[in-house]
Amino acid sequence: MTPLLEADTVSFGYGARQVLRTVSLTLLPGEILGVIGPNGSGKTTLVRLLSGVLAPSAGTVRLAGRPLTAYRRREVARRLAVVPQDPTIDFPFTALEVVLMGRAPHLSALAFPRARDLAIAREAMARLEVAEVESRPLDRLSGGERQRVLLARALAQEAEVLLLDEPTTHLDLRHQAGIHDVARALARERGHAVVSVLHDLNLAALFCDRLMLLAGGVVVGQGSPEAVLTVDALQQAYQTQVYVGRNERTGAPVVLPLPRR
Amino acid sequence: MSVRAPYLTPGRLTATTAALALLLLASIVGAVLVGPVPASLWRALGQGGTSSADYTILFRTRLPRVLLGAVVGGSLGAAGAALQALLRNPLACPHLLGISGGAAVAGVLALLAGADALSPLVPFAAFLGAIGAIVIVTLGARADGRTTPHAILLVGVVFNALAAAALMLVNTLSSYLQAQGVLFWIMGSLSTQSYTLVAAAAAYAVAGLAWLLRHALDLNLLAAGEEGALQLGVDVERARRAVFVAASLLVGAAVSMSGMIGFVGLIVPHLLRLLLGPDHRLLLPASFLGGGAFLIWADTLARTMLGPAELPVGVVTALTGGPFFLYLLHRDLRRALG
Amino acid sequence: MRRALAVLLLAGCSASSPGPGSSGPPARVVSLAPSITEIVYALGEGGRLVGVCAQCDHPPEVARIPRVGGYLTPSVEVVLATRPDLVIAVPSPGNREAVRALERVGVRMLVVHDRTLADLWTSIARVADALGVPGAGERLVGYVAGRLDAVRTRVAGLAPRRVLVVVGHNPLIAVGGDNLQDELVTLAGGVNVAADAGATWPTLSLELVVARAPEVIVDAAMGSEATGEALFQALPNVPAVRAGRVVRLAGDTLLRAGPRVPDAAAALAAAIHPEAFQPAPTGITPRAG
Q: Fewest CB atoms within 10 Å of the CB: B52, B125, B333, C168?
């Protein structure tokens, strides 16, 4: 099976500073990959390399078998959707207008959204429970609602690959679970693949099929949550004492930081 | 601020544009009929004939001027809307970017070189100055092949400051009457009698608007964030450059013909965005039509407020636009803090 | 009558500020305005000028005198370098700071005005007084006043014509009321249609030109004749345009409040009442009727 998304020993640096070194990953259809690691480990840079916003200084990124550079931007946008971390939008677009932007890769320059586009947009908003705020301008939404609207926009793109950069920062428990249910449903039902950069190790353990642990720009662990979330690996990567247990209900590992002496 | 539909439909676009077009038409007619000198339309069309005072006043002095106001106001309005999206700043002003400064300096230099104030050489020179400014600002703002809004703004502001200094220098070196010519550039004037000029300007402005409209969707996406736009398939660098050049050419042409008239390109798009929403497929034509109507009325006030003598139209736009701008700024600050 | 006026003014006190070593008539004089330079030469004291402003161009001998900066922007340092005993200036938008600076340093400053004809007589008298040649001042006033009288006499008895004097094309700036140029228009047998516009140099809208219907338009603006023509040709029902009485006045004699004021008056009179001036004096380009 061709991987939907592939990073082949990509590196990236600003001048003398190397942010990522020879990172490789493959993403198969239906997979949910969680990218974890301490601050500054290069997680966001990796997302930007995978989406093509940044060009790697070495290595290639491949989408459905072809190098990203071989695609035109609109083609990439039809197949790959990104939800950025926390953008500010200074213009009073309504929530629905923002979600409709997700249909732009499928529409020509002056075309107006058709009934189908509207239906897709509204369905995405319903899935993320932001349907009631569709007429409200973005600056009047709470942080959590805004984040879910941007997620809805990514869903509206109908892309096979979904890249999420810290999608749960402003979300409460209900919605933290909610969006990952949505992601998992997409993966299972439609064979989409998801890369989710997460701060919260327990969410990662709970929702992702595989994890990739980044530290200092290098991959220090890749595999199932149980395999990656070990005390030694985590203590080395995060430079702090941790406790690793087991969630009795789900069997997933549970990670907690321990107070430092 | 207002309750509006959650998204833009072709129906709403047509209806709103038609309404604004009617407003512009009404403004044109109204402004032609108003002036410091009473003139009767009936007499002009009736027994007076084409050499009567009424005909001359209405159709040889007022109508061309009002039409030029529509074109210049429209150009500034549309360019202002586009630049506000480009710079991701809802309070940006087209004159900030140095283009007007370049046009004014070139125009003044043409005047000093001996060209008559009414010679077509002056607006032509001014237009070349605008293009020069565009080139300098675009090149100056480019780093690593990328032109960010931040860089454009910085280089533009510096260039504008330089142009302002150059104008002051010219002012000091010139005689009293030449200094009056410089005032034309700084405060603006729509006085014209040439239908040819107005027609050419109108064709040019409509072409500029059409070029901007091609990127209307791109502007929506860009306004919502550069990286987001990139990831939604927009060729950001190309779109930015195209919009910047189109908007700048519109501003350059407007300034070449009528000097620096401020606040139109700032207030009209901002206000219409609050009322109609930030979708540029509607906002661009709306700002064009609304800008034209606003400038026509400002010029009408300039012609009539002081009796026989005229105010420069830039004074009226500043006096009406300035306080309104302060109010908007205050509102934005309160909203940001509260 | 004018002579009596001049004597009375000479008898009044002058507003010059005495500086160090100001006993006796000044030997080194700086003029900061073209009109003042002309007055000094007309008084026969051109030899005492050691510095003039850049725009001073009359009479031709002034070319050899060093420049001390512009009429609007005199240079304090260069003025001081000429070691003047007296500096004469006309208030202009740009030279206020320079004049004040020179006064503070202790240079003897004489500031005269040039807005009206009355100012002109006062200026001549005070400059002559400061230079120590009051008699020449009297004679100059008499001479200039006499020539003005001659112009007035020539058009006396002719019905005054409505006149618009234009000094700028874009924006359209006209000679307004309450200034010397307006007085010259009246003296030359005209009625200034823009005299009530509420400003000395009002910007007029074209429709006002149409409404005021001047019979003569004097185009004294800088720039080419062709564009001036084009401007007014578009207003065919204005009497001046219809009768072909759009007259171009070259140069800036009209704007200089100096001893050549009668030349400007004569030029205006010839433009307004051409039938009284055959052949036309130099400096005027009348249009075919």
A: B333
More confident residue, B90 or B76: B76
Q: Return the pLDDT at A250.
A: 86
What is residue B330's predicted lDDT score, i.e. its pLDDT?
86
**Domain of residue A188, residue span:** 5-257
Whether B230 and A80 lie within 8 Å, measured CB to CB: no
Range of the domain at B68: 20-337
Domain harbouring A205, CATH code: 3.40.50.300
- Domain count across chain B: 1
> Shortest CB distance from B184 goes to which of C171, C202, C205?
C171
Q: Cα–Cα distance between B152 and B54 in angstroms, integer?
A: 49
Does some domain include residue B12? no
What is the residue-averaged pLDDT of chain A? Answer: 89
Q: Which of A91, A100, A105 sits opposite B223 (nearest CB)?
A: A91
Q: How far is C201 from chain B (nearest CA, A)?
A: 9
List CB contacts of B284: < 8 A, sequence separation 6 or more: B78, B81, B82, B209, B212, B213, B216, B219
End-to-end CA distance of chain A, in Å?
A: 49
Alpha helices by DSSP H, listed for chain A, are: 43-51, 73-79, 95-101, 115-127, 143-156, 173-190, 201-207, 225-228, 231-238
Q: Which ipTM value was assigned to this complex?
A: 0.86
Residues of chain C with Cβ-Cβ distance to B183 below 8 Å are: 171
Does B15 fall in a domain? no
CB nearest A109 (choices: B5, B6, B214) = B214
The pLDDT profile of chain C, 289 residues, written as one tens digit per residue, is: 555 555 555 444 444 444 444 567 889 999 999 999 999 999 999 999 999 988 888 888 899 999 988 887 788 889 999 999 999 999 877 788 888 888 888 889 999 998 899 999 999 999 999 999 999 999 999 999 999 999 999 998 899 999 999 988 878 889 988 889 999 999 999 999 999 887 888 888 888 888 889 999 998 887 666 777 778 887 888 899 888 888 888 767 788 888 999 999 999 999 999 888 766 555 555 544 3
Alpha carbon of C243: minimum distance to chain B alpha carbons (Å): 14
**C166, C218 contact by CB (below 8 A):** yes
Q: Which residue of A49, A91, A133, A149 is the best one to mutate when testing the B interface, meaning the one whose CB has the most B CBs within 10 A? A: A91
- Residues 6+ positions from A69 with CB-CB distance below 8 Å: A52, A55
Please name the helix (run of DSSP H) or strand (run of DSSP E) that holds residue A21, with its range, or none: strand A17-27
B204 to chain C, closest Cα gap in Å: 23
Task: Mark yes or no for CB contact C207/B57 under 8 Å.
Answer: yes
Domain count for chain A = 1
Is B14 within a domain? Answer: no
CATH number for the domain spanning B33: value is: 1.10.3470.10
Half-sphere exposure for C115 (CA within 13 Å, toward CB): 11
Question: Chain B closest CA to A8's CA: distance in Å?
Answer: 21
Tokens coding C168: 């700028």
pTM equals: 0.83
